[in-house]
Amino acid sequence: MKKFVMVLSAVTLALALGGCASQEAPAEAEAGDTPQGTEAAGPVTFTDDLGNEVTVDNPQRVVACMGSFANAWELAGGTLVGVSDDALQAAGWTIESPDVVTVGDFAAVNLEAVLALNPDFVIMTSGTGGRGGDSSQADLRDALVGSGIPVAYFEVTTFDDYLRLMRTFTDITGREDLYQKNGADVAAAIDAIVAQVPAENPPTALVLTTFSGGTRVQAPETQTGAMLADLGANNLAGENRSLLKDFSLEAVIEMDPDFIFVIPMGDDADAAMRNLEEATAANPAWATLSAVQNGRCITLDPTLYLAKPNAQWGEAYQGLFDDLYGQSAR
């Protein structure tokens, strides 16, 4: 993928980081372009990611309590009456359902707001912690089930997780054509990219998440870490897992990865990047890193590598492949 400068301030910060490039997100996939009059799928029973058996029957008043789930539900041909705030605020997707209302932040869903919408299906995340480490949507299950509302929990980290989610959603909506378009076709595109990964001399890499309060090293099991593994990269965080708890610039310098990928996190990307710039400026050894000297310190777009890219998983894989190997698998 072509590198580009997202905003002028990002240029200044990237230069301070010793040449961290920036990767552009492709045009977002269209949602809501499904034909009218599709035959309802009827009752569908499935097991969610918490092990609960859930039955829904052609739901029409759906609430999605995670932005990526809201987008995925529309990609599956469904419509929404309620979403969490991030579904309407994030830059990675557009919600097409008319007159949709918010039910609060995904880390603090407002149960009363959900119930007021009289939903016939609620989609929630089984991940715990939220942003502050003290919020879990699973705590709301008893109240919803007690009100006779079907609720399902999902946890999506990797592309395979997304594919499983789309299989369930399109089974509910009866839209096999949209599973093919937004699931199977994307899987085929990713397989074609992975098939071109060189078998020898795997590059080494680290993924840093930076925010206004600090910088963290991502584990190999995270979204971007899993993509790098699929693309043959050796994530050095797997060899030094102490970095996952305590970020050490000195340890990064000692490991000297071939690639450093930086993902800004939070509402203020400039502040996030400024934090890392200040840390690296204080240590002249940063400029001696192979990744910095070779132009392989790369800022990734968080809409593809922090939020879930959904129908754009293929573009996310393509971007990392181009960064790692300098060629296109088209």
Number of strands: 13
Tertiary shape? globular
Q: How big a fraction of the residues is strand?
A: 15-25%
> How much helix is in the residues?
25-40%
Q: Which parts are unreliable, with pLDDT below 50 for 5 consecutive residues or more? A: 1-19, 24-37
Order of helices and strands: HEEEEHEHEHEHEHHEEHEHEHHEHH
User: N-to-C terminal Cα separation, in Å?
Assistant: 11 Å
Major sheet: size, sense and barrel closure? 6 strands, mixed
Mean pLDDT: 84
Structural class: alpha/beta
Number of helices: 13
From the alpha-carbon coordinates, what is the Rg to the nearest angstrom? 21 Å
Give an overview in words:
By secondary structure, this protein is an alpha/beta fold. It has helices at 8-16, 67-75, 85-89, 111-116, 141-146, 159-173, 176-194, 223-230, 249-255, 269-281, 290-293, 302-305, 313-325; strands at 21-22, 43-47, 53-57, 62-64, 82-83, 101-102, 121-125, 151-154, 204-211, 214-217, 234-235, 259-264, 297-299. The strands form 3 sheets. Strands 1, 9, 10, 11, 12 and 13 form a 6-stranded mixed β-sheet that branches. A hairpin with a 2-residue loop joins strand 9 and strand 10 (214-217). Helix 6 runs antiparallel to helix 7 (176-194). The longest helix is centred in the middle third of the chain and has 19 residues, at 176-194. The protein starts with 7 loop residues before the first helix and ends in a 5-residue tail after the last helix. The relative contact order is 0.16.
